[in-house]
Amino acid sequence: MLMEFLVVSVLNGAIYGMLLFMVSAGLTLIFGMMGVLNFAHASFYMLGAYIAYTLSALGHFWLGLLLAPVLVGLLGVLVERFLLRRVHAFGHAHELLLTFGLAFIFEELVKLFYGNFPVDYRMPEALRFTAFTVFGTDYPFYRLFIGGTAIAMFALLYLLLSRTRVGLVVRAAERLPQTAEALGHNVPLVFMGVFGTGAALAGLAGGVAGAFFPTSPNMALELGVIVFVVVVVGGLGSLEGSLLASLMIGLFSSFAVGLDWSLAGALDAVGLGGWAREMGGLMTTTLSSIAGSVPFLLMLVVLLLRPAGLMGERS
Amino acid sequence: MAARLAGGTALAMLGLAGLAGAAAAEPLKVGIIEPMSGPDAATGELYVTAARYGLEEINRAGGFNGEPIEILLYDNGGTAAGTVDKFKQAVADGVRVIFQGSSSAAAGQLTADVRKHNLRNPDSRLLYINDGGAALDLTGDKCHFYHFRFQAPAPMLVGPLVEAMSEAGELGTKVYSINQNYSWGRDMETAIRERAGDGGYEVVEATLHDVAKIQDFAPYVARIKAAEPDTVLTGNWSNDLLLLMKATGEAGLDVRFGTAFLDQPGNIANAGETALGHYLASTYNLAAGDEAFPEDYKARTGHYPVYLEPRVVIAARAFGKALEAVDFGGGAIDVTPIALALEGVTLETAMGPVTIRKEDHQAVMPIVVSRVEKGAPYPVDGTDMGFAPVRTIPGPEAVYPVQESCEMQRPG
């Protein structure tokens, strides 16, 4: 029984964590390399899901998965080139407000074209099968697919940034933009590329995850907050930090659901449990009933102990 | 020059008098306060469409007080704060009757605002038609004479749901209760526990979870599986229902769901075949009769009435029937006689008669329990699945007892 709880919770939590990483990877990249806190990031995720949905409705699921990152990436490039670059000189507040506004515009546009209700974006039948059975519960293959995509994404990004010349230039452009420019590198082009890649990653995440979770105009809002929590906990701009934070949040949430711990239960140990139960309220609130708030508690603790995040550099 | 001026003034005064004559018949202003933007806009849109349809029906039959009813729309963004603002604006616009339904939080705010306004302004009282707020305390603690609820709160849905499911032999003896951690979900959990004796089942476990925050329901499914229930009863709506149902289906768990909001647009399409065989308790089912209504609705709004829409139309029709019984002869409008008339209304619907319980102004509405089946009449979401009615329970049988906490001050 305990074994089952452990195994199932780890499996569920790890995959959910991978999904969170998939969505937050692009956000981390953009922040780490450009210093732009992109509020429209979750909207790129939503647009990716809708693009993939549109193509899968025409019978091209895989083409949808391919085109979602490409088109969303292009949109990201346009946003950087024609909007962000103009306000860059005015500082972070302007960039933040701009992306914040974009998020609203994207949401309303999606509502305009696809309506208010969730659309029927589902995985193809060929992917709808059970990967394995664990303690009598079927484990859907698609969850593994989500996890695999996230791992591939992390490996690619990591290698690209740390092992290739492109990565070297990107990091140089972020650290010392003027020096990089003096050495003949086109820094604005680098930023455009980074922003486009970040958006493309969100688009891919949307295409993959949208088929598993409902694709609706609210999906950006629903995941938007938690993605920021991931990035803050992991340390702004740190890819490894994001991965670690995503996994922690996934696992903590998953375990919290199964645990009916309460303050009253803890007080039983010192013989005050009965008194605590009479008090009710916060004393008898179980961990499982606030599982959705666990990520925020984690963020609070991390910010108190390590303000720069788990893997963030102190500035 | 002076004569011409005087003549002009006289003409102007005549004009004014003429205007005053035309305006003597006071039009009844009805405000619809719902979210038309923000995350709840999808639900708000349905409320607005249905309430307008119902009110325009009254206008086609001649309006009220010699004038067509004026319909004013207010966007509260889905929040209690937005509702406060829009309520004030509606009062300033001269609105006398308010239709509102999406969100119990907004309803709780609104009903308190209406009560206070009526105490302070006995000459311009307001009437609040609540066509959606399901929290029990709206007809309990917070009940007052000018609030009417056309919605079935938790006990009114759970009772018929377990009755019909157990009659069909599909309830089993072990029930898992999973609900959202706020007033509605708690009401549901209480109702599910209370019905255990009559329904002949045992609540093996009850879970409350955060509202609209959970993306991954797999951990909850693991809990459900460990408890080995036959049936899962839930008041969850929107993503919280859809994700829960999908996660259960994907885990290969063989349980039936008894729900209150499965007919929300998009649910069936998204869940696909996973939804087959699950149950829904609601206030209306198109397949139960009166084919003219869905056709007329479709002709005027572009779609068959779905989800909450038929219920809102019932509220508007009951309101219209109350108006027929009141006559101000084109003079000033007072909502007290309208409210008194509404108390006595009996509205015949395809599901059965709808009446108002005088003690707490809860509409006594029939409840229909349906099952998701292929080939059901009025398939939804562009699929071949729909809600096949299993059993209709008449209002007086379905309704819950009047809550002791309701102390209604009647006028006069």
UniProtKB/TrEMBL annotation, chain B:
Residues 27-375 form the Leucine-binding protein domain. The keyword Transport applies. The keyword Signal applies. InterPro entries: BCAA_transport, Leu-bd, Leu_Ile_Val-bd, Peripla_BP_I. One of its GO terms (biological process) is amino acid transport. Residues 1-25 form the signal peptide. SUPFAM superfamilies: Periplasmic binding protein-like I. Keywords: Amino-acid transport, Signal, Transport. Belongs to the leucine-binding protein family. This is Branched-chain amino acid ABC transporter substrate-binding protein.
